[in-house]
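Issue: ligand-bound run for FE2/S2 (inorganic) cluster - logging full I/O for the record.

Environment: standard queue, default settings, no custom constraints.

Inputs:
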Amino acid sequence: MKEEIGREAHDIVRGALEFKQEEPYSPERRKFLVLVILGCGGIISAIVGLPLLGLFLQPLLQTPKDVWRVVGKVDDFALNTTTQVVFQNAYAHPWDGVSSHDAAWLRRAGPATFVAFSEYCQHLGCPVRWNNDAQLFYCPCHGGVYYSNGQVAAGPPPRALQRYQTRVRNGYVELKTGAIPFAY
Ligand code: FES
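Outputs:
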C-alpha cells in the first residue's frame, strides 16, 4: 500500500515535470493573458460604470430652463428700498443642499415695479453689498462701486450689474432665474 502511494506520488511529480518541460515559460503568453484579464475588467467596468456616470452627468449636460421663483410678497418691500432676496437657482438638484441658493438685490422702484440686480460684481464676480445710507452697491474685493440703478460709479467694474427679469403675480414678486446673469 505504502509502495503504491509512493509510486503514485512519483508519477504525479514526474508528470508535472514533464508538463513543465513541454510548456516552457513564455513572456508573450503571460503578457497576452494579462491583456485579456485587463480587457475583461475594462469591459465589465464600462458595463457597470457608464450608466452610473450618465446618471450623474445628465443633469449637468442639460440646458437649464428659466424658472420663475417667488421671492416675497409685494407688500414685504417698501417703495424705493433695496433688499437682498434669496431663492433657489434654476440648476438645483436634490443633492445640492444650500449651495443651490442664490441671492439678488431687489429694488422696489414703483408700486408694482421691481428691479432685480445680480449680486455678482462685473469685475471678477465677488458678491456686492448694498449700503443704504450711501445708496450705493459696494464690492468688497477691489473697491468697485455701483449706483442704485446698477450703473458703475467707480472702480474696476467694466459694466453695470446684470439684471434678472421680474414680474408681480397674485401679490407676489417673482424673479426669472436661469443661467446666472454674469457677463465677462
Ligand atoms: S470683483 Fe468687484 S471690483 Fe473686483
